[in-house]
Design a protein that fits this description.
single chain; 6-stranded mixed sheet; alpha/beta; 317 residues
Length: 317
């Protein structure tokens, strides 16, 4: 994890300002297109605090929520490409929203520079314990025998939590009822009450509620078992090949991508406290190159396009 977060900062500091002798030369704002407390916000504040401590410069996190992340992402896209504005964003504004919205105020491919992925966070399939199933395979058998009978909760139309459940239904050849909620905590409360029978949400929103016994975690939606939840099987192990891990990455206005990588300020997030905070939030560093970042976005678009079409998910704007 230490090497991963080190690489994130090396890429960040090397990419943002090739012409300057040192970056940053003034206050930097980190725009988050979601509300305080959301995963991108948590990541942004960890990065901001560390960079402030190491450089002495101000790093100010600005939350610009709205339109499923489009509002804040547009702020980054239209900012001056001088390294003074960067953003922490996720798969919605950078990939999925292009499939959902009739119009976006920015072009994700033309208006944004991809700097690096930051962290991934496993989603998890959880059920109300009253369903009486022990694993994913038993759940799928139940759903196939009762199409349209059971409901799942999500954090909104077009969210990863909806797409994951619709992908599960599509792979299983069955139907589910969608019930959206404003946030993960509200969806989890609905699951615990039995208002919905299942969810696929960030694992960190589920794990604190497992001790009470009202809900049960069946699987994670990562390609392989998560190192942070090694005893939880994947959906694929349960017979449903669905991947839906969440991720956060660093972006900047597009023209930043045209600058040559100059001097790299060799800062490193070696703070044990920062690593512990990442682990506590079930986050794993996944730094990469801009090309790898683009490949991940393209893969997400290819993965979710048929699911969105099959489930007829659309947001008119």
């Amino acid at each position: 994890m230490r090497r991963g977060v080190v690489a994130v900062l090396v890429v960040l500091l090397g990419t943002l300002s090739a012409s300057a002798q040192e970056w940053p030369t003034r206050s930097v704002r980190i725009v988050v297109p979601f509300a305080a407390g959301a995963t991108p916000d948590v990541v942004a504040r960890l990065v901001a605090d560390y960079l402030h401590d190491k450089t002495g410069q101000a790093f100010v996190v600005e939350n610009k929520p709205g339109a499923s992340g489009n509002t804040g992402t547009d702020v980054v896209a239209k900012a001056e490409p001088d390294g003074a504005t960067i953003g922490v964003s996720i798969g919605g504004p950078l990939a999925i929203n292009a499939l959902l919205f009739n119009n976006l105020p920015y072009d994700p491919k033309k208006d944004l520079a991809l700097i690096t992925m930051l962290v991934s966070q496993p989603s998890a399939l959880a059920i109300n314990s009253s369903l009486g199933v022990k694993n994913t395979a038993e759940l799928i058998t139940l759903l196939k025998a009762n199409p349209g009978k059971y409901a799942y909760g999500s954090i909104g139309t077009g969210s990863l939590s909806q797409l994951a459940m619709e992908a599960i239904a599509l792979k299983a050849g069955t139907k589910l009822v969608h019930v959206p909620y404003p946030s993960s905590p509200q969806a989890i409360q609905a699951l615990m009450r039995g208002d919905v029978q299942m969810v696929c949400l960030p694992a960190i929103s589920i794990t604190p509620q497992l001790a009470g016994g009202a809900i049960k975690m069946l699987a994670v939606s990562t390609a392989e078992r998560s190192a942070l939840l090694p005893n939880v099987p994947t959906l694929k192990e349960g017979g449903i090949d669905v991947q839906a891990d969440a991720w956060s990455g660093l972006v900047a206005p597009a023209a930043v991508a045209d600058t040559a990588i100059g001097q790299i300020n060799k800062l490193a997030l070696t703070s044990r406290a920062v690593r512990e905070k990442l682990t506590a939030q079930l986050m794993e560093p996944i730094p990469d190159t801009p090309a790898q970042f683009r490949a991940r976005i393209d893969a997400d678009i290819a993965r979710w396009a048929p699911v969105i079409e099959a489930a007829n998910i659309k947001i008119n704007n």
